Amino acid sequence: MKNSKDVSFLGHILIMTLALGWGVAGAARADLVAFYNFESGAVTDETGTHADGVLTNGAVISDSGTATGAARFGNVLDTTAWAKDGAILGNWNPVSASGDLTIACWLYNVASSPVETFFVQKTDSWSSTNMMFQCGILATDQSPPGQVRWMRQGIAAVTSTQAFPSNTWAHMAITVSNNTTATLYINGTNVGSSAWSFGTDTTSVLTLGVVPWAAAINVSYNGYMDDVAFYDEALSEDAVRALIADQGLVAHYDFESGAVRDLTGIHADGVLTNGAVITNSGDDRYGKVLDTTAWAVDGAVLGTWNPVSASGNLSIACWLKNVGTSSYETTFVSG
Which helix (H) or strand (E) holds 238? Predict the structure, then answer.
């Protein structure tokens, strides 16, 4: 009989997403150029491509369970001070050379505003020569009120056919194909598409929730943001829907809390066993990881719940770093 030590996994389980569910969901794609989930307590690009963003004017990272009652989102960007607060990401350009872009995120829009508020933008002024793009939610006195508008000065905006929900989490995505067509999605549904072209100021500032140069009027976003992803491709409608975590995702462990915490909030925390620890990977893309290199029957016990759907469907996705070989087959997930 094999010694049980010999079949435990020898390696770091390096996780950006360990997802168990009935369908493939999540942000990890080859065309992902930046991803902010705020679990580190900072505006950290989890791909490791860009320097950390900077919080401005009272914006904070808050716990979504405390702030919104939805623990599954973990830490989120909180701009509810509504004091021109948000995050400055830098001057880098997320648009591909061929003019493709997707921006996807979860938003919790606290309330309608008397002015249009912008949750993402790349612009240095209202001028058409300084603005690549902006996306915001129309004010209560604008027409149509509460609708999402993707815009820049000098061309017609793309406006959603329905209002964005308030006081609940909803998924938002914008895709641009070949610098010619922009499409808006709310909760994975196409809500508007029209002709589009980007502005030319590729070095303008890229921000979340705040328009830092708009001192005369507060057009910063009033709400919470999470899982902000930039892709240098125009994702298909099916791909946008696959990003929506509540479509089949039943558990998600990223270890950034220092514990085996299910970020969906569905299951109790897992338990580390026999010397397994949570360590820093040394790679900004992965952050904290489950470390089983003691190779002493160490790992994490998640519980006795069943991730398989009633119809027999299951997907398990994770990042692994195997640091050595064994004389026996080693198991990194079992049930």
Answer: helix 237-242
pLDDT on residue 81:
86
Q: 11-13 and 288-291: which strand pairing? A: antiparallel
- Provide the whole-model pTM: 0.69
Q: Are 17 and 40 in contact (CB under 8 A)?
A: no
Q: Give tens-digit pLDDT for 124-140.
A: 888 878 899 999 998 87
Residue 267's alpha-carbon distances to 46, 165, 315, in angstroms, are 24, 27, 17
Q: Give CA angle at 119 (148, 63), nearest 5°.
A: 120
- Residue 192 near residue 184 (C-beta atoms within 8 A): yes
Residue 329 vs residues 2, 5, 302, 324: alpha-carbon distances, Å: 10, 11, 21, 12
Cα→Cα distances 51→59, 284, 313, Å:
18, 10, 39
Please, what CATH class does the domain formed by 27-242 belong to? mainly beta
pLDDT tens-digit profile of 194-248? 999 999 999 999 999 988 776 656 788 999 999 999 999 999 998 898 888 544 5
Does residue 165 have a cis bond before it (omega within 30 degrees)? no
Three-state DSSP state, 33: strand
State yes or no: pLDDT of 326 exceeds 50: yes
Write phi, then psi, for 88 (nearest 5 degrees). -95, 120
pLDDT at 25: 39
Cα 208 vs. chain centroid, distance in angstroms?
Answer: 12
Q: What is the pLDDT of residues 27-36, one digit of tens each?
A: 556 688 998 9
Strand order in the sheet with 288-291: 277-280, 288-291, 11-13, 321-322
**What does DSSP say about strands 101-109 and 117-123: parallel, antiparallel, or unpaired?**
unpaired
For the chain, residues classed under CATH 2.60.120.200 are: 27-242
The tokens 């919470």 sit on which residue?
224
Burial of 134 (0-12, 13-18, 19+ CB in 10 A): buried
Q: How far apart are CA 241 and CA 173, in angstroms?
A: 10
